[in-house]
Structures are given as structure tokens and as C-alpha cells.
Design goal:
This protein has 197 residues and is α/β, with parallel strands linked by helices. It has one domain: Lumazine/riboflavin synthase (Rossmann fold). It has seven helices and four strands. α1 links the parallel β1 and β2. The structure holds ligand DLZ.
């Protein structure tokens, strides 16, 4: 069946100099793992280098906003410790010249260009689902507007386990893995954010 739903055709964006983080919850792991793999597939397809992808986990979706916020802050500190006069592009490089300018002995890194937050909330018998979904949605929006780093909303809020499996490309309906959309969104926003600066 054809459908009009979805992000529509997009230009392709070059992610080869982007630094991207994925923060994911561990609840509903089987679905999460597939979504993370889908996001990584799109990142790689856009040219994002494996060494420029950081993956961090939190226990549940409720912890996603603080995880994203602290990981981004840590990347800013890491970048500011790598020395002045090094451009964002240089910071992706670990050449000896760049390292010589750096004040640390670790590979210099720039702050993340975009962060993908991934969680799967499955509705239960109580109001728990509604409270967490609302808090996480607002929390992630707040982090991205407060920091200016694009935060990709990879939170599935599904009524059944089956709905979650479908959206991770694991169901029988042929629905695609939504993680792939999130990876593409991260690259597009990471690139566009530079132009918007
Ligand atoms: C407690 C809980 C429940 C019941 N369900 C989910 C879920 O479906 N998906 C998810 O990501 N996390 C769930 N959690 C855990 C909370 O998000 C959170 O980790 C705990 O309440 C601790 O703050």
C-alpha cells in the first residue's frame, strides 16, 4: 500500500565532517538495538565516520534529556580543552600537527553537531506512559533550544509491543526502520545548523 506519510524526499547531505552522538534508553532492548542500528546505517551512508559517532546509554527514556544535555556539555568541555586556534574541521583530525597544538594527549574532538535520542515507551495499564512521554518530549525540546544543538526525537510512544517492532522494521507489515529517518535527520540538521550559525 502506498502512503503519503513520511519525511518526503530530501537532498543528500555530506556528513563526513560531522560528529554525532546517539543516546539511547535500555528499556525494550530488542527494539532499541534495531533502531540504533538503523540510525547508524543512515549516518554511515551519509559519510559520517565511525570514530565520530559516540553512543551512550541511559536506563530508561525518562533519563534521555539529562543524558543528552550532559553528553553535549561534556563534548563542549572536551573541545575547549583541545586548545585555541584549531578549527572545527581540524578538531576532527588526529594528525600530529593538530595534536601538537592541543593541550591534551587525546584525539581532539569538536562538540557534537547533532544528537539522536532514542527510546521506546510502551503503554501499560497506568498513566506512567503519558507522564514519561510528556516529560521526555518537553525535556528534549528544551535541551535543543537551550543549547542550540539539534536533538533528534527518536522516542517511539507505542500502544503495543507489536507497534514498536513494526517501527523498528521487525514486523510483518513491511514498515521501515524509523531509526534510519533519525540518522538522516541528524545529518541534515548537523549540516544546516552550521549554515544557520
Ligand atoms: C519504569 C518504566 C516503564 C514502566 N516503562 C518504560 C518504557 O516502556 N520505556 C522506557 O524507556 N522506560 C520505561 N521505564 C523506565 C523509566 O523511563 C525510568 O528509567 C525510570 O522511571 C527511572 O527514572
Amino acid at each position: 500500500m502506498t502512503t503519503i506519510k513520511g519525511p518526503g524526499a530530501a537532498e543528500t547531505f555530506d556528513g563526513s565532517d560531522l560528529r554525532i552522538a546517539i543516546v539511547h534508553a535500555r528499556w525494550n532492548t530488542a527494539i532499541i538495538e534495531k533502531l540504533v542500528a538503523g540510525a547508524k546505517k543512515s549516518l554511515f551512508a551519509a559519510g559520517v565516520k565511525e570514530e565520530n559517532i559516540t553512543i551512550q546509554t541511559v536506563p530508561g527514556s525518562y533519563e534521555l534529556p539529562i543524558g543528552v544535555q550532559r553528553l553535549y556539555a561534556a563534548s563542549q568541555v572536551q573541545a575547549s580543552n583541545t586548545g585555541e586556534g584549531i578549527s572545527a574541521t581540524d578538531l576532527l583530525s588526529s594528525s600530529t600537527t593538530d595534536l601538537a597544538k592541543s593541550t591534551t594527549t587525546t584525539t581532539p574532538k569538536k562538540p557534537f553537531d547533532a544528537i539522536i535520542a532514542i527510546g521506546v515507551l510502551i503503554k501499560g495499564a497506568t498513566m506512567h506512559f503519558e507522564y514519561i512521554a510528556d516529560a521526555v518530549s518537553h525535556g528534549l525540546m528544551r535541551v535543543q533550544l537551550d543549547t542550540g544543538v539539534p536533538v533528534i526525537f527518536g522516542l517511539l510512544t507505542v500502544l503495543t509491543e507489536e507497534q514498536g517492532l513494526e517501527r523498528a522494521g521487525l514486523g510483518s507489515s513491511g514498515m521501515h526502520n524509523h531509526g534510519e529517518d533519525w540518522g538522516s535527520a541528524a545529518v541534515e540538521l548537523g549540516v544546516k545548523r552550521r549554515d544557520w550559525s
